[in-house]
Design brief:
With 514 residues, this protein is mainly alpha-helical. Helices cover 55% and strands 5% of the residues. The protein is built from 24 helices and six strands. The strands form two sheets. The protein has a four-stranded mixed beta sheet. A two-stranded antiparallel sheet has the order 5-6. The longest helix has 22 residues. It is elongated.
C-alpha cells in the first residue's frame, strides 16, 4: 500500500475515542451559528424592533385602562411580540442550514470529525440564545405590569412560556425544512403555505376548539372580557406541553433526516411524538363541566364568590382579586353623592362587581341591569373611560332608584344624571366625550354605563354643556335646592333648564320612551 493510500485510509478511519463524539464541538458550532444569524438583516431588524418596542412600553407611563392591568390577561399579551422574530429566524436558520449546499462544501464536510446529524443539532441549538432573549423580554414585560399600582390577578407561567417556545419552534422547523427540501426558496414558500393552511383549517373546522389550539399562539378575539383568574379556562399548561413536544419532534426528525441512526434518537422522536399528542389531546377538551358551572355561578350569583368591605356609608362587593380596588370605586361614589341633594346624598349603596363569564374570554355580552333598589354594578375593567361610565351608573341609580330604570330616563332627569356623573370631575368636558358612544360633545348620542346606558338628545347635551362650564359650587347649590323637582319622573328638559338657570334648548328636548 502506498503512503498516499495509507494516509487517506487513516484520515477516514474513525477510532473509538474520536472527537466527533464530543458534544463540545456541537456547542461550539452552535455558538458560531448563533453569531452568524446576527449577520442577517431580517433577524437583526426584527430583534431590535421587538426589544426596542417592548422597552419603550415598559418605561412609558401608562394611563387609563393600561394603568390597571389584569395579570391573567397581561401574560397572554406577551405572546404576540415575538411573531415577526420567529418568522425571520425560520427563514434565516433555514438558509444557514443550507449554506454548505449553496457553496458546494458538503463534500469537504464529509471528511470532518463531526457527523452531519450533529451539525444539524448545532443549527437547532443556534436558536436557543434568541429564545433566551425572548424569555428575558417576556419576563421584563410581565414584571413591569405586575408592579403597576393598579395591577390585579395572577399570571400563568405556561402562558409566559409560549413566546420563547414559539421562537424555538420556528428555528426547529426551519432546520427540518432544510433537511427535507434543500432549497432556499422553500422557507419563503413555507411561510405563505403555513398561513394559507391555517386559514383553510380554521374555515374547514368552523373555528373548533381543537383546531384553534393547534396554532402556536392562540389569541382570544372578539371580546374585552376580563375574568377572574380561576375562570379564564385556557389550557395553557397543555399547550406548553404540546409546543415542547412539537419542538423536540421537529428537531429530532431533522436529526434523523441528516443521517442520525442511534437508537436513542429514534426513541426520543417517538417520545416527542407521544408528548405532542398528549398535549394536543389535553388542550382540545374545551371547558370542563366544573368550569362551566363556576362561570355560571359568577355570572348569575356573584355574591357566592365575593367578599364585601365598607367605605363610608356604602358597601363594596368584589371577586377576591379586586377587593383592593374598592377604595377607587368609593372615591367615585363619594364624588357623585357630594353633588346630589335630598336623601340621595346620604343614601347607602351596594356596589357589586359583575361579569358575564358564561361565554368565556371571547364573549362580549352586555350585563343585565340590576332590579334591586340602590345597587350599582361595576365591571372588572377599570381606568380610562370605565371611570366616568361607572359614575354614570351611580348617578342614574341615585336619580331613578335602580339600574333597571336607567333606560326610562328619557326626560329632564338625564340632565341631572349627567351633571352628577361629570360635575365633580377635574376634566368634565373630556369625560362627557368619553362616555358618549360617538365621542362627541354636541348633538344627540348614546351614553355608556356598566349596564344599560342613557340616550341624550341634542337639547339635553346643550344644557349639560352649559352646566359644566359654570362654577361648580353655583350649580351644586341649585341642584340640591331643587332636587325633588329635578328628579321627578316626567320632568321636562325645558323645566330643568329653567330651574337651573340655563338657556332653554330649541328643537327636540326629550327622547321618546318606548
Amino acid at each position: 500500500m502506498s503512503l498516499a493510500t495509507k494516509t487517506v485510509a487513516e484520515s477516514t478511519a474513525v477510532p473509538e475515542d474520536d472527537p466527533r463524539r464530543s458534544w463540545a464541538a456541537v456547542f461550539a458550532l452552535a455558538r458560531f451559528e448563533a453569531r452568524d444569524l446576527l449577520r442577517y438583516i431580517p433577524v437583526v431588524v426584527t430583534l431590535l424592533l421587538y426589544v426596542g418596542w417592548t422597552a419603550w412600553t415598559l418605561f412609558d407611563d401608562k394611563e387609563g385602562m393600561d394603568a390597571f392591568p389584569a395579570l391573567q390577561d397581561a401574560d397572554r399579551h406577551t405572546q404576540t411580540g415575538p411573531l415577526l422574530l420567529g418568522v425571520a429566524l425560520f427563514v434565516c436558520v433555514n438558509r444557514c442550514t443550507l449554506r454548505s449546499r449553496r457553496r458546494g462544501t458538503d463534500r469537504q464536510f464529509d471528511v470532518l470529525v463531526m457527523e452531519p446529524w450533529r451539525r444539524t443539532v448545532a443549527h437547532v441549538l443556534s436558536v436557543a440564545p434568541f429564545a433566551g432573549v425572548t424569555a428575558l423580554v417576556v419576563l421584563g414585560e410581565f414584571t413591569r405590569q405586575a408592579l403597576r399600582p393598579g395591577a390585579v390577578g395572577h399570571g400563568s407561567l405556561a402562558e409566559l412560556a409560549v413566546g420563547p417556545l414559539y421562537v424555538l419552534l420556528c428555528g426547529a422547523f426551519g432546520v427540518l425544512l432544510a433537511r427535507l427540501v434543500p432549497s432556499t426558496f422553500a422557507a419563503p414558500v413555507g411561510v405563505i403555505g403555513l398561513f394559507v393552511l391555517s386559514v383553510f383549517v380554521s374555515a374547514g373546522t368552523s373555528g373548533a376548539e381543537w383546531s384553534r389550539w393547534l396554532s402556536p399562539i392562540v389569541d382570544e378575539s372578539g371580546g374585552n372580557t376580563v375574568l377572574p383568574s380561576d375562570l379564564v379556562g385556557r389550557p395553557a399548561a397543555w399547550h406548553a406541553l404540546y409546543l415542547t413536544g412539537l419542538i423536540l419532534l421537529l428537531a429530532l426528525c431533522a436529526v434523523l433526516a441528516s443521517g442520525g441512526r442511534a437508537l436513542y434518537l429514534k426513541a426520543g422522536a417517538a417520545g416527542a411524538l407521544a408528548l405532542t399528542l398528549a398535549g394536543a389531546v389535553g388542550q382540545s377538551g374545551g371547558a370542563s363541566p366544573e368550569l362551566t358551572a363556576a362561570r355560571e355561578r359568577a355570572t348569575v350569583s356573584p355574591q357566592r364568590d365575593q367578599s364585601c368591605v365598607r367605605h363610608g356609608g356604602s358597601t363594596y362587593c368584589a371577586f377576591p382579586e379586586w377587593t383592593g380596588r374598592a377604595s377607587d370605586w368609593a372615591g367615585v361614589v363619594d364624588r357623585v353623592q357630594a353633588l346630589a341633594g335630598g336623601t340621595a346624598a346620604r343614601q347607602p349603596l351596594l356596589v357589586r362587581q359583575r361579569v358575564e363569564a358564561r361565554y368565556g374570554l371571547s364573549g362580549d355580552s352586555a350585563i343585565d341591569p340590576l332590579g334591586t333598589p340602590n345597587q350599582v354594578t361595576v365591571g372588572t375593567r377599570w381606568g380610562g373611560n370605565r371611570v366616568p361610565e361607572f359614575a354614570v351608573g351611580v348617578a342614574y341609580v341615585l336619580v331613578a332608584g335602580e339600574e333597571s330604570k336607567g333606560s326610562e330616563l328619557c326626560d329632564g332627569r338625564v340632565v341631572t344624571t349627567m351633571w352628577l356623573a361629570l360635575g365633580g370631575d377635574t376634566h368634565p368636558m373630556a369625560d362627557l366625550a368619553n362616555v358618549r358612544l360617538d365621542d362627541s360633545v354636541t348633538g344627540a348620542a348614546s351614553v355608556l354605563a356598566p349596564t344599560s346606558g342613557l340616550s341624550m338628545t341634542a337639547g339635553q347635551t346643550d344644557v349639560v354643556r352649559e352646566l359644566l362650564s359654570r362654577p361648580r359650587g353655583e350649580v351644586t347649590a341649585s341642584v340640591k335646592r331643587h332636587w325633588a323637582e329635578l328628579t321627578r319622573s316626567g320632568v321636562s328638559t325645558a323645566r330643568v333648564a329653567r330651574v337651573l338657570g340655563t338657556e332653554v334648548p330649541k328643537g327636540e328636548q326629550d327622547c321618546a320612551q318606548e
